[in-house]
Amino acid sequence: MTRPTLLVIAASLMLAPAAFAATRAPAATATAAAALPASNPFAQASTLPFHYPPFDKVRDADYAPAFAAGMAQHLAEINAIANNPKAATFENTIVAMERAGQLLGRVRTVFSVMSGSNTNEAIQGLERELAPKMAAHGDAIMLNGKLYQRISALYARRDKLGLDAESKRLLERYHTDFVRAGARLSAADKDQLKTCNGQLAALSTTFAQNVLKELNASAVVVDTREELDGLSPAAIEVAAGLAKKRGLDGKYVIALVNTTGQAPLSQLTNRTVRERIMMASQARGSHGGQFDNRQVVLDLARLRAERAALMGYPNYAAYALEDQTAKTTTAVNALLGELAKPAVTNARHEADDIQKVIDAEKGGFKVGASDWAFYSDKVRAERYNFDQNQLKPYFEMHSVLTKGVFFAAGKLYGLSFKQRTDLPVYNADMLVFDVFNEDGKQLAIFTLDPYARSNKRGGAWANAYVSQSALLGNEPVIANNLNIPKPEAGQPTLMTFDEVTTMFHEFGHALHGMFSNVKYPRFSGTSVPRDFVEYPSQVNEMWALWPEVLQNYARHYQTGVAIPAELLAKVTAADNFNQGYKTTEYLASALLDQRWHQLTPQQIPSDVLAFEKTALLEAGIDFAPAPPRYRTTYFSHAFAGGYSAGYYAYLWSEKLDADTVEWFKENGGLTRKNGDWFRTKLLSRGGSADALQIYRDFRGRDAKIEPLLERRGLAGK
User: What is the DSSP string of 373-421?
Assistant: First the structure.
């Protein structure tokens, strides 16, 4: 199963100007720009290489005035475009909008990075304050009648303007964006929409902040070292360190991550402790107190349904999917429904195998959610004669990164990487690299923030500090964020295979951003439909197990000896192990996402947990030992992370991914010829053409579903 990533994608065009662009603001904005003191680090474009953000100069107090000046400047630019007495042209309207919002883009980029990766109370407070203001700012642009009239007039003449293909698509996308934002609504409906958008922005922020705060509050305290039997000495020391930081000397703290499943569950021999961890994980956001998200969920679902109805759609999912490659709820429901039954059937078979191990040990209990990871590893060990802990000594983080992820990129695309330590970082653990093409020309700057922190949101994601654009003369600066537990000082970072695959996955997003070769910021890098954006990153996961790559990076951190051939064979053979469970937990979340967002305003329930239970039961995926990867009350993808009605996208994209993996294998695998073709035909094009047409240009046909079914063990089911 792919690793859900929370990739940061702008919800609308006017909120996603190219970061740290060097383009000079129009004269009409001079007053607004002058309102921001030159001492503010956002007042001018960054002078660092590739306009890399000046993290060392930014203070919390700089954000609010920069946002205020940035929004004022952006609106001045937009009003100048809308009120231009000259007839609308592609240059004075569409291109002018692409150039607008530079100051706002600079501050918004850094603030978004800090709020996700290095937040604090001041940032969270400003985030709550800004959410409705930014929503109102977006509405002021997207609901500007004069501006829409200019765009509409150009759209009506689009075939007569002599535009190249990318420019014509840009005009079409602007028209679609404005219509979908409500540009055609009546004045009264626009007012209602503005109110709704402001409330949605505030609620999404509340949801996200509740999830992060409760992750820290719900950490499990363990009294004795004996109760942690099964954990490695290094993991126990980390738990002791976390306890000490909380003033709990002599105790141990197990920190939680945002998924339902928790890594220690695969190692802890003490069932009571495992049950405590699983109970704490699943209860988040739903047991009262200041971080309870149940009412927030109901309000978000209702407001989204009301917004969709206002726009003329039967439900929010119908509105959201219309602009994705899936297009309809019917298509998504069919895909999820088709896989639910065979996935649960496979999971039940896997549960039977686990139960046999429990019974043989005279455990005297039925396998539950807290038991699955621990006992499935025993089944794996019995079936393939190895367990996951055998692998970790071979997966030291820097080796995985430089000799695995970077090595594969070098073989496939001719890239090389040089670490640099002169650029500012917001956390000392960040790694920064210059990225070069084979001809020696610098392509991009890449950063990695690898470790989990209490002030960093869960999951893994990629974002662009600077998006490539020929129009603005910008080259890409791309970041990856992971949440690997940080070892005690002086200890190596040994990764699970899941974490290894996640690193390859996120770098797939980075490649998509770094290889971007488009003119307009609107189409840069990962600015593609949500159900297409995960596809290139999923493809990059294949190299984690590619023999040539694996043998290069999987070396014992103490001896340097390569992973033994017999262990490698077992890893490869076990790659599809536990697919019933993995598919079921993912599908359960994807189905919940659709059920919540296919409701009408009148259908919003009063009890979140009861609705969740019924939805899973009706979908035939209510298998307690394999709970949803995210339950509703901590489902940030769906309620705070830009994947509302879109969590299906990982599976939808995986169909393209599995078919592409077959293409690579059919054509010789890890070769420059294959990499150049994939880069040129697909990765470089961003959103500059229809996503599925880009796929056809690469593959020569539409994707087939058979490779996906085979991968997940569902073929013939």
Answer: HHHHHHHHHHHHS--GGGTGGG-BHHHIIIIIIHHHHHHHH--EEEE--
| pLDDT beyond 90 at 621 | yes
The number of residues making up the chain comes to 717
Instruction: Please give the single-letter amino acid code of residue 588.
Output: A
d(CA 377, CA 659): 29
Amino acid at 140: A
Domain range for residue 234?
A: 218-283
- Region 58-76 average pLDDT: 97
- For every residue of 260-307, which 3-state class applies, written as one string? CCCHHHHCCCCHHHHHHHHHHHHHCCCCCCCCCCHHHHHHHHHHHHHH
Helix or strand holding residue 209 (H, E)? helix 187-217
Residues 6+ apart with CB under 8 A from 355: 366, 367
Q: What is the DSSP letter of 470?
A: T
Categorize the per-residue pLDDT at 655 as very low, low, confident or very high, splitting at 50, 70 and 90. very high
How many CB atoms are closer than 10 A to CB 147? Answer: 24
How does DSSP assign 331-345, residue by residue? HHHHHHHHHHHHHHH
CB count within 10 Å of CB 351 equals 23
How many domains does one find in the chain? Answer: 1
**Tokens at residue 60, please?**
């919390």
Give the pair of three-digit tokens for residue 510.
């980075």
Whether residue 717 is predicted with pLDDT greater than 70 in this model: the reply is no
Give the Cα separation of 619 and 571 in Å (integer): 33
Active site amino acids: 506
In a domain? residue 270: yes
Q: Would you say 292 and 185 are in contact if contact means Cβ atoms under 8 Å apart?
A: no
